[in-house]
Design goal:
With 167 residues, the protein is α+β, with helices and mostly antiparallel strands. The chain contains three helices and ten strands. The chain has a six-stranded antiparallel sheet with strand order 2-5-6-9-1-10, covered by helices on one side. The chain has a two-stranded antiparallel ribbon with strand order 3-4. The chain is globular. The protein starts with 15 loop residues before the first strand and ends in a 7-residue tail after the last helix.
């Protein structure tokens, strides 16, 4: 019997997928990352992730910034919520700092060093994305979430802007 064909998602790997181990809250982590780097991570709506096994949609804390110097988007993402682990194979990590865009490898190494220099961070490591099965779907979820957030912000801007006289 022939196997049914499945569509393969064409998720492009992130420039960096940095796992962070710390006892800080995600708000504190975002603050210290902003302080040590040129990033300006801001809290956004939680990232919804669907889990096929449990048939549940779980929200994970999510911070985002767009950085023109690095020509990239940066996301800080919690690895757990109410007992659900985003990446069970890497449950030792509390957070993931994800770089999407065109950041050069020497800047990624510099970013990892900055995160490691935060006193309450025990581990900060750029993870090998090819060896972790769940990363492509997470990256797709992030891309869809960022697109939705930009759409919402654009609609808010259109509501705030006063109509000109010729409209």
């Amino acid at each position: 019997m022939p196997r049914p064909q499945r569509l393969d998602t064409a998720a492009e790997p992130a420039d960096a997928f940095i796992g962070i181990v710390t006892n800080m809250s995600i708000i504190q982590m975002a603050h210290f990352i902003n302080q040590k780097t040129s990033l300006n991570l801001v809290r956004k709506a939680d990232l919804p992730v669907y889990f096929e096994k449990t048939k549940k949609l779980v929200d994970f804390k999510f911070f985002h910034c767009q950085n023109d110097d690095y020509r990239s988007d940066f996301c800080l993402l919690g690895n757990s919520n109410a007992g659900t682990i985003l990446l069970p194979s890497h449950k030792q990590f509390n957070y993931f700092l994800i770089a999407l865009g065109a950041i050069p490898s020497h800047k990624i190494a510099q970013l990892v060093l900055h995160v490691k220099s935060i006193s309450a961070v025990q581990i900060a490591a750029n993870l090998d994305q090819n060896s972790i099965a769940g990363i492509p779907s997470i990256l797709i979820d992030i891309e869809l979430h960022l697109t939705e957030q930009k759409k919402i912000e654009s609609e808010k801007q259109n509501l705030i802007m006063p109509l000109s006289e010729d409209q």
